[in-house]
Amino acid sequence: MDTSNLTYPDGVSQPSQRRVAIIKKAILHSSEVCDGCFSRVRIIGDIVEIRTGEHIHERATVYERTDLGSQEHSPFETAADRYGTCFCEGCGSAVDDGLGRGNRSKEELTGMLRNAAEHILRHSDHDLSGERAGRTLNRLVAEPDNTGYDTELLVASLAVGLEDTTATISPSTATAD
User: Fold this and answer.
1) Domain boundaries along the sequence of the chain
2) Whole-number pLDDT of residue 166
3) What Cα–Cα distance (Å) separates residue 68 from each residue in 40, 53, 86, 92, 93?
4) 59 by DSSP, 3-state: which?
């Protein structure tokens, strides 16, 4: 996923990689967020280690489905199985399925942008201008060369919407594609 593939109209600058990394961590790489519509489908707390005589288990301090997360279809037998498959009641997508490339309508992308912005504002330490992100999305969607780059359009729009004072990144936030 590379936002440099997009065509940026006059007045819209390509966001910095720091801002893109923040959005990727908060939305694309989050097991709490549906890949299909960016609604929050589950709440996962900090991971803690539980040590027994012979084993080390990793458990989430909190693990709950939201109203939009349907029941998983796999048991929690091991730490790797703990998160199972969670389906979004809002759009029917399986969480962690991968957003992929698509050709969504402007209205679908706007709804996804709203869900992602709400998640960032309510559940992260970052401030985001939804108005700026929305304007950026509208301008990027209007460029014919950007068709089929749904993920990139959303990430770039959200990254542009990050407020300057909070666009910081820690070493653990930087993740590779």
Assistant:
1) 3-32+97-173
2) 44
3) 7, 38, 10, 10, 11
4) strand
